[in-house]
Amino acid sequence: MSKEEFLSQLEVQLSGMPENEKQEALQYYRDYFEDAGKEKEGEVLASLGSPEDVARNIREENGSGEYTERGYHTGSQMKDTCIVQNSGYQQNGGYQQNSGGQQNNGYQQNGGGQQNTGKSKDSSTTILVIVLIILLSPLWIPLISGLFGILIGLVATFVGFAVAGAAMVIGCVAALVGSVAGICMGFPVPLALMAMGAGLIVGALGVLFILLTVLVCYYVIPWIWKGIKKLWGMIFGQKEAVR
Amino acid sequence: MVFNTGAALLDAIVLAVVSKTAEGTYGYRITQQVRSVMEISESTLYPVLRRLQKDACLEVYDQECAGRNRRYYKITERGRVQLNLYEGEWKTYSEKITSLFEKGVGDE
């Protein structure tokens, strides 16, 4: 195909367009060949593609499409992401003059839209979780109450042990004081010594109780606390669990 | 190039190329200059130039050259405003992508 053949075929392909539009396009490609020069004619022809393709390209000049190495592609899904600047030739062949509105509106609105969809997805999951929690309340309220009861019971036991320990220590001191006082006041010495020994045994047991309580509180309570936190995290998402 | 070029980026590139010559430039030269940075077909630019012209971002005039009229494209004030906008957008966009490639997502 020569340059002249190309141009006459292009003219045929462009028939139906307004005359001035057609002449503009033909003039552009005639200029193009002239400027490329005679020696590059074949190269330009090869790169332009068929007159049909070029004509389609011209008709779709409102172009909200993609330009790739293989040429121009219209995709209706692209319309919202591009800066839609005007409406020229529609695919049905109708002709509309550009109204020249705000040029970057489409672009920015689209950005905002994408953010919104992200957010609403997030909130719908949250709503789902809340609904699930409410629906399952007959199950987890007794469960949590039970667990809470056990916890309080355990704490009370520990406190009881501690108080008992303290009482025993006080008893021990009282027994020691009492027996010394008894000896001074003329009580039989073996009897007083026995009371003193018993007091000391009780005191030792009391110290043991207190120590045990402290140990238990030191290790067991943090362990329970961690368990509760983990459970909380499992129910309400990974964020709390990671911490 | 593996990345597709959207209509906005192509508009920006054409406006940038045309804006570099104060007295205006012509279709063949614009195409060659755009083709020096990205692979486009020789028929890609006519619709773009036409659209930019309709949007009053470019103006045209004919000048005689070697016994024939050659059509020249020149950037308008409106085109310059549009080009500035594109350049700003491109800067933010490309910086974000580059930083993501090099450092990852800036979460912390």
Q: What gyration radius of chain B follows from the Cα positions, in whole Å?
A: 16 Å
Report how far apart the termini of chain B are: 33 Å
Order of helices and strands of chain B: EHEHHEEH
Radius of gyration of chain A: 46 Å
Classify the helix fraction of chain A into a percent range: over 70%
Helix content of chain B: 55-70%
Please give the order of strands in the largest beta sheet of chain A.
Answer: 1-2
Categorize the overall geometry of chain A.
rod-shaped
Give unreliable regions of chain A as ranges.
67-72, 74-119
Q: Which sheet architecture does the biggest sheet of chain B show?
A: 3 strands, antiparallel
Categorize the overall geometry of chain B. elongated
Structural class of chain B: alpha+beta
Largest interface: A-B, 43 and 33 residues
Low-confidence stretches of chain B: none
Biggest sheet of chain B, strands in spatial order? 2-4-3
Question: What is the straight-line distance between the termini of chain A?
Answer: 72 Å
Largest sheet: number of strands, sense, barrel closure of chain A: 2 strands, antiparallel
Element order of chain A: H for helix, E for strand: HHHHEEHHHH
User: What structural category do the secondary elements of chain A indicate?
Assistant: mainly alpha
- Integer average pLDDT of chain B: 89
Number of strands of chain A: 2
Question: Can you describe what's shown?
Answer:
Chain A has 243 residues and is mainly alpha-helical. Chain A has a two-stranded antiparallel ribbon with strand order 1-2. In chain A, helix 1 crosses helix 4. In chain A, 16% of the residues are buried. Chain B is α+β, with helices and mostly antiparallel strands and 108 residues long. Chain B has a three-stranded antiparallel sheet with strand order 2-4-3. In chain B, helix 1 packs across helix 4. Chain B starts with a strand and ends in a 5-residue tail after the last helix. The relative contact order of chain B is 0.16. The model of chain B has no long low-confidence stretch (mean pLDDT 89). At the A-B interface, helix 2, helix 3, helix 4 and strand 1 of A face strand 1, helix 1, helix 2, helix 3 and strand 4 of B. Strand 1 of chain A pairs antiparallel with strand 1 of chain B, so a sheet runs across the interface.
